[in-house]
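Continuing from the previous page of notes. For each protein in this section, the sequence appears first, followed by its structure tokens. Read the first protein now.
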Amino acid sequence: MEEIEKEKITALHSQLLVTTIFHPMEYAKVLIQLGYEPLPPRRSTTLFGRPAMILPNVFQYIKFIKASDGYFGCYRGLSARILGLIASSQLSCKVINVCGIDLPEISDPPNIITDDEPKLEDYVKMGRRDMIMHTASVVVSYPFHVVSVRMMASFIGKEEDYNTLLGTIVSIYKDDGILGFFHGLIPKLLGDLTCIAVTGVLAYYVNKYFVKTKDLRYYTVPILTFITSTLTYPLVVVSTCMAVAGSSLKAGNPPAMPKYTSWQACWRDLLRNKQHKRGSSLIFRYYIAPIAAMQ
């Protein structure tokens, strides 16, 4: 546990740097996930030459935000994201200790030290460890995630109450109480834990039957994680929408967003309108008209 905690603290500096540098892109991505499209689509073609309506890419989106709020406006919500990273780094292991959970000692990923046959029990241990650690990390940092998302979402309706970190915290508490800081947590955890579990199972079989050298096994888990995360991405969109749904923000109420009674209702609505992959592509963004708009 102590080694894991030291590793998380060591990685924190690089995470903070990367988060700060790429925050404008994350900001634009959150607004896209919420379905906010302030710039009209234009006529273009797909990669296969078919006619299509294409939406502005993430860099054009960021340019629009900058034109509206200035350079520093592109970093709306960054303070909450940084606090979330710090909370995750400093508190995750402590929460696990307080709960009395023992994490299995296992190399990450297994079977890279030797060329021995992969053992299923090693991958089960790795999956259990990663799921426990990720759950603790998400739970302690999620309130800051909701704060960050609502700060960014306030760009849509220009709500002044959400301009500052403290103001946003007060507004969330007024809107929904303590539970408001955990809106969208279930689909977030469901997607992440599914990704971890499926990745672990696939990594075992890939390393057992296809990858025979220890050097290549090191890359199996990262590659499979990327592939699996694309399949669970719609739950990320649902989580982002539920983080603002029903709040005092314009972005979380009609006509910007339907009134969702649950995250399952949000999932069904996004799936029905083919909006469940919003933000998955930040460069080639093709316009899909909502069903309601076509009726």
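Done with the first. The second protein uses the same format. Note its length before scrolling.
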Amino acid sequence: MKMSLPVAYTRLNADQQNHKSKISKLILPLIVIAFVLFCGIGFLTTSRRPGIYQYQPMRYQYKSEPLNQSRLMMELRSLLNCHSVDDSFRIEMRGNYWVLVNFLTPSGVTLNGERYRREPVKCYETITYTTHGDYSFLDNIIPLLERWEAPLSLALYAPGDEVKAAIDALRWLMFCHRQSYLVEEWVSVHLYFDTARMPSKPIQFYRDLLSQPPPYCADTFQDLVVLPNSIPNRTADHIYPVNVGRNIARDAAQTHFVLASDIELYPNPGFIDMFFRMIAHPAYRHTLDVAGVYVLPIFEVAETASIPENKTELLEMLKRGEAIKFHEKICEKCHTVPGYEHWLKITKEDATMDIANTAIREGPFALWEPIFVSTKREPHYDERLSWEGKFDKMSQGYVMCVLGYNFHVLDNGFLVHKPDIKSVSEAARPELERKQRKFVEDVILEELKILYGESDRCEL
């Protein structure tokens, strides 16, 4: 019996069959080749052999029309979706330390020669430089702010009688320096001191004193400062709790992004605008979706040298030997960024920024101590470690390695230490270093293994 075909079905004639066969033979191999290439590229860019460092150079730079400032702020507000932080004065306890949070806050801003009250900073509109120090380091604030021109959150260590010295130094900056407006506009100070070394007078006395001009103005900061070692309450076993200060300053910052750095490290001018225009661009927004930070390479210059204003000047100084990598003579591997030779080849005449490469903290970079832009959600520094014993940032680096953080090296951002190149002998503190290193290896590392797990790739 002859079966009839469904109405919707039409049999192909011989010519149509041949034509379809030719198309299939052409398209199918192309699909297979494309699939193989896609898988191969994915494997090469994501696979890592344990213990082997691989960095991924960025092969693109954004060239689209830049956003105007208003549109940029709108994009950042939506992208970061952050919340503002309270900037009121409060007293907190942190371990064995009392903290006077927001002891000093920005009070005003100058526009066209007129003074206006400073409105609280919105969390998405800028980056806070967070740092630490005692009063003898306060001469760095003005030159740092000249280049940063944005909020600075400073944890100021002032045990015992040093509170008065710290207040006097701040008053000099606020009332005597010709660029005191930078302090009024941008600086937040958080005093902290040991419970065993309390101030001799009530805190309100020092708060009132801070608002009063000094009876006279010393000509220079150096004329005003008495070295901390000359303070009566400074004992021979006194140590500087560097990580307590780092955490205080970062936690008190009012912005989503922070640059947790040391007060003697000065950034290149225009950094914030370049960074925000980069991060708001679609090409880089994906970096916000996974654990990652944005690294600035660090350099040193001689005491008589000027600080480079941009990367072009920096590269010229490096060629002439007037600048070197940070701690090149002390611990070169601690501060050499991955892909450094590639970084040196990137020159830019315009005010743009890209990610030069992305790396992980392992292999030859397992002991790397980068300084970076991050959020306030990244791991804290271990507050039991002192500045004198060194290795004070290693525990944070270990945790970030175990957690799989990406370190994005910025191609047009850098930090330069206050002019002065230290030697190995100046930085050496062998007895304290041995003691702290042993504590890190015997105690802290074991704790971190329990808390975060361990990895053969990560070292401490």
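What the second structure shows: The two ends are 84 Å apart (CA to CA). The mean pLDDT is 85. We return to this in next week's lecture.
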